[in-house]
Amino acid sequence: MKAFDLSGKVAIVTGGNGGIGLGMAKGLATAGASIVVAGRNADKNAASMDALVKSGAKAVSVPYEATDEAAGQKAADAALTAFGRIDILINNAGTAVRKRPEETSLAEWHLVMNTNLTSAFTCAQACYPHMVSAGGGKVISIGSMMSMFGSQYHASYGASKGGIVQLTRSLAAAWAKDNIQCNALLPGWIDTDLTRRGRVEMPGLNERVMARTPSGRWGLPDDFAGIAVFLASAASDFITGTAIPVDGGYSIQV
Q: Which of 64, 128, 157, 250 is catalytic?
């Protein structure tokens, strides 16, 4: 359908070199978008870019350190140099510190907040004028089930991901007049390198997730391809300020 066609569009995907980020990048590329993979690991950047190019996509990679306040501008500059415009921003870069709040240092708090929340703000700021010049744009930021639930081991992570939802709403309200739609995705339990380590560190996690998830499985990075295309395309032009769970139904059950 034409409404989902992203031909001629340019997307920046932070943390796009693996996991959920790469799943979304692949979806956007399949719909015709050119992709800027922004990630910290140079080897993973190169591998993800090669995979996208081999699939027929136009793609470049750029070094991206989320805690660097200038990183968002550097990513925007790379997109403009390579493709001449910016239409889509996916704020996906993130990290977590698994500690109880009384054990979390201020340095660890700042690391998580700067990586997960402040970087989303600075990237959106950097891309905003170029989306205005393009006649509109899409900002998709990745929250978490911890945007809704509390965890005794994730105070900093939960605060940052709750902030993503509120940042999304504020950007949506401010930029609607510029034809820029801003939405958030709230992933549930997704099968990634991080959660595989979690299953080793937290005995019984797999059983608890499976028991609560109506879909009866862990999510996969490719499960985010379709929702990314929808929110990045004209098909979602009247949807803004939302936070959509992508969790196989985990959040609807008690």
A: 157
